[in-house]
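Request: Show me your protein:
***
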Amino acid sequence: MTPISLYKTLTFAVALGLTGCANSYLVLLEDHDGSTGKVIFNDASSETVIEQAGYATALDNSKTVFKVELEKINKDFGRALASEPVLPEIFLLYFETGGTTLTADSAALIPKIMETTSKHPAADISVIGHTDTVGDASKNEKLANERAIQVSKLFDASKLDVKEVAVTSHGEKNLLIKTGDEISEPRNRRVEVTIR
């Protein structure tokens, strides 16, 4: 059978445009986050639903749904899967109150962030600083910027393939957890790092 892969709607649309062979099939794969959607394949006289990753349907009006082993998926789609661009990844780094000291859990994430950066050719990195609502808003803007600058120094272009590091500060304006003023919320004391 001629294979057709699917793990995103766009991929599905392109794949269907390429088929035409009576032995073609469509297979549903997990998304990058581990989730699996659903495919409803309609033709003039029938409808076939696939809701499990690794299952496929023949595109010959047979309504047959069958399991496709990972080895076959890799054989049939290996080149296409290998050419897929690396998806952006987002990390949240949290800080101790009132300063630029990372929490222990966040400090432990640094090696993972560096590893992720190395997987992105000519990485484009966004670093956005935030605070909770304790203290003066203008001081929080400055503190959030200091946090973002500190984190941005991790992405040394002489050691990593980094195209750009954009640093911004939102202070207490874009809270992750909505609170009133003067509330010490640990999840709002953060820097968001997006690696593309």
User: Anything to note?
Assistant: The helical segments are 9-18, 70-82, 104-107, 110-118, 137-152. The longest strand covers residues 162-171.
